[in-house]
Amino acid sequence: xxxxxxxxxxxxxxxxxxxxxxxxxxxxxxxxxxxxxxxxxxxxxxxxxxxxxxxxxxxxxxxxxxxxxxxxxxxxxxxxxxxxxxxxxxxxxxxxxxxxxxxxxxxxxxxxxxxxxxxxxxxxxxxxxxxxxxxxxxxxxxxxxxxxxxxxxxxxxxxxxxxxxxxxxxxxxxxxxxxxxxxxxxxxxxxxxxxxxxxxxxxxxxxxxxxxxxxxxxxxxxxxxxxxxxxxxxxxxxxxxxxxxxxxxxxxxxxxxxxxxxxxxxxxxxxxxxxxxxxxxxxxxxxxxxxxxxxxxxxxxxxxxxxxxxxxxxxxxxxxxxxxxxxxxxxxxxxxxxxxxxxxxxxxxxxxxxxxxxxxxxxxxxxxxxxxxxxxxxxxxxxxxxxxxxxxxxxxxxxxxxxxxxxxxxxxxxxxxxxxxxxxxxxxxxxxxxxxxxxxxxxxxxxxxxxxxxxxxxxxxxxxxxxxxxxxxxxxxxxxxxxxxxxxxxxxxxxxxxxxxxxxxxxxxxxxxxxxxxxxxxxxxxxxxxxxxxxxxx
Length: 538
Known about the structure:
It is a single chain. By secondary structure, the protein is an alpha+beta fold. It contains 16 helices and 13 strands. Strands 1, 2, 3, 4, 5, 6, 7, 8, 9, 10 and 13 form an 11-stranded antiparallel beta sheet that branches. Strands 11-12 form a two-stranded antiparallel sheet. Helix 2 runs parallel beside helix 5 and helix 6 runs parallel beside helix 8. The longest helix has 37 residues. It is flat.
């Protein structure tokens, strides 16, 4: 018995060590990294000896000056020093393994990562001399081909620059306000082009020397710089052409209409009173489309069981409604739909959840063409963020603007294009008042705002003095969902939103509309109600 008691503490120690020590995977990973270190040390020793032997060969004489000038030998010393640092990390890893504490798991992983990083760095260093030897041998053997290739690449750099310069000149003529930006960006390409031509001059100067006088390191490195500059030039050309093309694109998105679909989901529990348990699954009816008033009723008044059924006949003594019959009828559901069993003789019904789905309809204008979308479902936040912007541009990118300058704050239709000579011009009426006149192909901007609509110079100045980070609803807040001028436009007046929000339209026409969101009707896009208080059966 006493021997048994002595075994218990020993068992607990073994158990705790087994449960709370490092995992075998962590230990194996650590040991593998230490083996990796030993291999790197051997490789460094091999490479150093190989290099020393190479320096004694006749083939090395042509490379000797380069080795001294670039101090190749120092790379082995740096590599050795880096592996000494790796040794210290390895010792720390061994100590962690010896302690075998699971709390050191993350510390061990960091040390393994540091060790691998140090080994990789050391490996790169001892490879440098041989990489330079191979590089210089290739340059010496293929100097003529390298010269031809460098000339071809530098010519391509220059050709790209000249073509891009022509493209930029055309863009500056079309959009002079962007000249400063375009000139600066082109100058960066010009700088690379000039640098490339200078590199070519250096390379050709070396090439024309006597073979014994050529600096092949300079020759080869210069050729590589030209290759690198060609890649940079191509990348910059692609980027700048894309940026320039953005100036020639015009688009806008107008919030033509918006609406919400309201749904009520009813659930039913049925059971057989003759059984001592209820094994019939609840039935969920397909969602019923209802009006805003009805969904408010079901969310506020019909909060529990809305109906019960028991043997005796439907819509007679056997079917008892706890809500207004018209409200029940609006759901358009049959009490016995998908009835599970002839033996079930009792049931109750409740509103399981309500669902709100939000929709937008847009007019999309691209360049000089206009299209209208179908209804597009949007999320709740998007709907209410744009609720005040019926009949307005909610996105605009006029000609002469970059994509990054797109206007995402709502403004009256076409307001962002006023003053832009690509779209129209200023004219004076019979009284000498200045107004913006759209060219024929862009007259739809004015037409969308309604008959006899125009923007005056005063409107234009007021718009330009606005806060750019805020929507703009006109000098007197006359545009948008609650604007006095909005529903004088027949398109807005006949919209789904206007038909389902008549009070908003009335107050807007009378200039009494308040710019407040109707989001208070709803706190979320759907609401789960859960089964009624009756609990449903046994």
